[in-house]
Every structure is written in structure tokens, then in C-alpha cells.
Specification:
The protein is an alpha/beta fold and about 150 residues long. It has five helices and nine strands, in the order βββααβαβαββββα. The longest helix has 12 residues.
């Protein structure tokens, strides 16, 4: 696993969102985008993380940041997740984990004694010209939004 670093060009991608519509990183050209990767919709940690972003969307938008959440869940599951938690940002489906691999956060994980390949919970702040400005990989699901906001308000 070799995650992108600050200064790297963000890989261009297009993925289906929770409504099955194609969304591309280029749709946000000229805007900052927080691309956050999470393992699985509807799980406790991912729900806490998503709701933290939801509840702080006004502050994120005020800082000029759009949010894209990416997991390997199917669009239908993302739709249920967004509806259930009243999420106010776009969720994208990377079922074949190609975008996860391009960002370097797909790899071996261990959970309850099992080893498997999956998403390492990491967020990338992409600047207005498509370059990785900051990588967030040291956080808890409950304080992810605080760490992002404190960086933005720096």
C-alpha cells in the first residue's frame, strides 16, 4: 500500500453516486474537495464519521470545500445510507476498488484475527487545481470532521 502524499496529482475518476449518476472529480474543478474513503456504509464507525461531516457541512462549505465519500458499496446501499442518515453530500460507489487503488489506500487489513483486502480509512483534501493538498490518516471516526476543520481554519 502506497497512499498518495501532499503534492501528488489526484487521479482523475468517474464513479456512480448514490442515485446511479456519474460523478467525476473534474466536476469540481476550481473547488477544493475532501475525498474521504470509508470501509462500509451503515456500519457504526462509518456512520459516526459520515454524520460528523453532515453536521459540519456548513463550516466545510464556508471553507470552500465539497465532500465526496467513497466506498466499495453498491449505489443502492449508498442511497439507503444517505437517506437513513440524511447525508448532505455525495457518496460514490467504487465496487471494483480501482479508485481506492489509484489513491493507494486499498490493501491488507486485519480484523478480529482475519486478514483481508479492504479500504484503509483515509481522506484527501484536493486543492483547486487537482493536487493533493493534505492527507488525513490519523483520526478517529468521531473526530475526523474536527481534524479536517481545524486544518482548514488553520
Amino acid at each position: 500500500m502506497n497512499p498518495l502524499k501532499a503534492g501528488d496529482k489526484a487521479p482523475q475518476f468517474s464513479l456512480p453516486d448514490q442515485d446511479g449518476e456519474e460523478v467525476s472529480l473534474t466536476d469540481f474543478q476550481g473547488e477544493k474537495v475532501l475525498v474521504y474513503f470509508y470501509p462500509k456504509a451503515m456500519t457504526p464507525g462509518c456512520t459516526v464519521q459520515a454524520c460528523g461531516l453532515r453536521d459540519n457541512m456548513a463550516a466545510l462549505n464556508k471553507a470552500g470545500v465539497q465532500v465526496l465519500g467513497i466506498s466499495t458499496d453498491k449505489p443502492e446501499k449508498l442511497s439507503r445510507f444517505a437517506e437513513k442518515e440524511l447525508l448532505n453530500f455525495t457518496l460514490l460507489s467504487d465496487e471494483d476498488h480501482k479508485v481506492c487503488e489509484a489513491f493507494g489506500i486499498w490493501g491488507e487489513k486485519k480484523f478480529m484475527g482475519k486478514t483481508y483486502d479492504g479500504i484503509h480509512r483515509t481522506s484527501f483534501l484536493i486543492d483547486t487545481d487537482g493536487t493533493v493538498e493534505k492527507v488525513f490518516d490519523e483520526f478517529k471516526t468521531s473526530n475526523h470532521h474536527d481534524i479536517v476543520l481545524s486544518y482548514l481554519q488553520g
